[in-house]
Please model this.
Amino acid sequence: MKGLHQVLPLVALAANLAIGIYVLTRDPQRLVNRLFAGITFCFGLWNIGEFITQVATGPSNALLGARLASVGWCLLGAVFIHFCLELTGLLPGGRRRTLLAVLY
Model:
């Protein structure tokens, strides 16, 4: 490790996982809670990828970290929009499947 900035993704990972697990255990049957936990897990995946990228000893390891992080930030947008639509109740019932299929 070369500096404090390399540890920050691990701190963020711990915080994201703790918050996600806490919310999920409050009421795991509720869809909004599961989606919020999904958001925090996407952030956690992004954090793991960033950490791997920062401590990588070679280009192949850095590429692995970048690919892992990209899965997290790519899924984050779709999960967040789904969460917002469920939380506000604006997800249309008739076109729900179509909208979610396009979203994901």
Notes: The chain has one domain: 4-103.
